[in-house]
Amino acid sequence: MFKSKTGKRFLLTYLSLIICLVLLFVPLYHLVVSLFRNSYLNTCFHLLENGTQRIENDITSINTIVKGIYENPDIKRIAYLKQPIIEVTDYYKIRVAIDDFKNSISQINSIRDCGLIFSNDLILTPRRLCYSGDELFSRYFSVNNNHDYISWRNSLLDNKNISNICSLEAITSYENGIYQAITLVIKMPLSSLNYHGLFYATIDKNYLLSYFATQEMLDYGTLYIRDKNGNLLLAHEKMSDNNLTYENFDNNLTYINKESEKLGLIVSIGISNNFFTQKIKPLKDIAILFFIIYILSGVILSLIFSYRTSKPVLDIINRVTALRSKYFYNLKSDRTSSEYKYLLDFLNEADFSFQKYEQILKQQEDLLCSNMLEQLIRGQIYSSSAFTRAYSYFPNFPKQYCIAAILLYDSDKLELSSNAIRQTLIFSIVKPKLPSQALIHFTSNLLVLVLPFEQSNSSKEEFNCSREGIAKLLIDIKDLLFKKSGIYTQITISDIFSKIEDMHLAFYQASHLLRLIGKTPTDKIYYTDDFSLSYSHPELDFWEINRFYECILRAEEEQALNIVLSIQKNIKELGYIDESEIQQIFYSFRQVFVRIKNELPQQYSSLIPIPTYDDTTDIFALFKHIIKCTCACCDCIKIQ
C-alpha cells in the first residue's frame, strides 16, 4: 500500500481529518471554561443580589422593632431610674423591661448580642440589666479592639447618623463565646432631653457571609463590605487548603460588586481565576485521555481505511495495465506517476462515447413516442397488442385526460410554417409549463396537448388538474406564445376520456371544434359544451336545394345568396354540428354546382370553380367557397 501514491494520499487525508477534528476540541475546551466561568459568575451575582436584599430587609426589620422598643413605656422607665436602685418596685420595672426587650429582640434571628445604653449608665440586655459599662465589659460582653467600655461607646457615637454600621470586631460574649461581628448602632431620636441613648446589636460575620456566597465561594475567594465612603466594614480572605494557589492581586481575581443604596453599603466578592480552571480539571483530564485514545484509534483506522480504499484502485490499475498491454501499443503513461492520470489516459484512449450513444437512443425513443402518439390521435391503431405497446411507451399515462388542440397562427398571416426551428421554440415555451404526465405533439399547424384531469386538485404536483386549472394553464401558454414568439392561437378542449384507445375521439372533438369557431383569433377557450348538439339540420331539405337550383337558373343571385347565408346563419346559431352534417350540406350545394356546370356550354362551364371538401378547413371557409361558386354560376347564366 505504501508503494502506491493513492494509498499514501488516502492515509494523509484520513490523518489530516483526524488532526483537524482534534484541533476543533481546543476551542471547544476553552468555550466550556468560558461558559462555566460565566455561569458561575452569574450565580455569584444572583447570590450577591439576594444577600443584599436580605440584609436590607433584616436591618429594616431591626429598625422597625427598635422603634417599637423605644416607644415601650416599660422600657422608657429604665431611663429615669436613679442609682442606687433600692426600691422593690424599681426591680419589678426592670424585670418587666427585660422581658419586653427580650420578646421584641427574639423576633430577629440575625442578632447575636444587643443592648440599650441609657444616659443614666444603665444598660438593658435581653437577659439582664447592667448598672454600669464596666460591669457589662467585665462580666458579659467585651470588644477585643476596645479595652474599656468608654472608648467602645465613644466609637459607637462617632457617626452622626441615627443608624450606622461599625466595622468588624472580635466579640467576647458570656452567652455566645468569641466570634467576629459587625455592630449595628441605632440612636434614640426623641424630643425629650431626659430620654436619650443608643441601641447596639452585633451581627455575626459567618451569618453575613452566608447571605452573599456559598461555602465554596468563600473557600476560594474574597468578600468585602464597605460603606459609601469606602471604609472597610468586613473583609474575608480565606483560601481552602488544597492544590489551588492564591495570590492576593486584583489581576488574579474576578470581582463582582453590588451596591445597596438603602443602607449605603457596597458588597464585593472576588473569585480566583485559577478556581475556574481547577473546577473543570477532571473534565480536562478526561479530555486529554480521550484525545490520546482518539489519535491512536484514528491512526489505526486510517491505516485500515487507506488499505481498503486503495486496494480496489490498485486492482483496477492492474487490470487496466493488462488490457493496455493486450490491446494498445501506445503505452506512454507511467503507472507509478499518478494512478488516476493513468486511468484517465486509458479512458481517453478507449474513446467511450457513452453520452453520444445515450443521446442517439434518446432521440430514437422520442421519435418512436412521437410516431406512436400520432397514430393514437389519428386512430391508426387497431390491435390490442398495439395498444399494449402504446401503454409501454407512456407508462405514466393519466387515468383521466382531455386533449387541448391549439391552432397556431403566425403574427403576419394566418398560417404557420411547421419547420423544426419554430417547433423547437414552441416546445421550449410550452413544455416547462406542463405537468409531468402531460404529452405534447405537433401535427401540421396544430399543437396537441394531452393533459391529465382530476375533479379536484388532489395531485401532489403544483399543477392544478381540474377544469379551472387546465383553463388557467392554457391561457398562460396562449399569452407566452404571443409574447415570446408573436404567435396567435385558437384553443379548444375535448371531453374527458379515460382510455388510451379513445385518444383519436378526443382529438377529433378538439380539432372539429376548431373548424366550428373559424380562424378569427380570440382569447376564449372553447369546450364541447359551448355548442348545443344537433342531430339533423331542419333548414336544408330537398325543397330548399331545389329552390336554390331554380334561383341560379334564373340568375337570381341575391335570392340564391340569401338561401346560403340563411343556412350559414342557422348553423352559427345552432352551435355544435357533426362532421357528417357538414358533409351533407356541402355536397348538397356542390351537387347543384356540378349540375349547372354540366348544363352550360364549355366556354362558360370552365368559369365555374367546383369547391372540394377539406376536413381541416373550418365550416365558415367552406361557406365562402360555396358563395363564390354561387356568384360564378349566376354570372355565367347572365352572360349566356
Provide structural commentary.
It is a single chain. With 640 residues, the protein is of the alpha+beta class. Among the domains are: 71-209, 2-Layer Sandwich (Beta-Lactamase); 213-277; 392-530, Alpha-Beta Plaits; 542-639. It has helices spanning 5-70, 73-79, 88-105, 133-140, 149-157, 205-212, 215-219, 273-279, 281-327, 339-350, 354-378, 384-393, 420-430, 467-485, 503-517, 542-553, 557-574, 579-599, 602-605, 619-639; strands spanning 111-118, 123-124, 129-130, 141-143, 163-173, 177-187, 197-204, 221-227, 232-236, 253-260, 265-272, 401-409, 439-443, 446-452, 488-493, 525-527. The strands form 3 sheets. Strands 3-2-1-7-6-5-4 form a 7-stranded antiparallel beta sheet. Strands 13-14-12-15-16 form a 5-stranded mixed beta sheet, with helices on both faces. The chain has a 4-stranded antiparallel beta sheet with strand order 9-8-11-10. α1 (5-70) runs antiparallel to α3 (88-105), α2 packs across α3 and α18 packs parallel to α20 (619-639). 23% of the residues are buried.
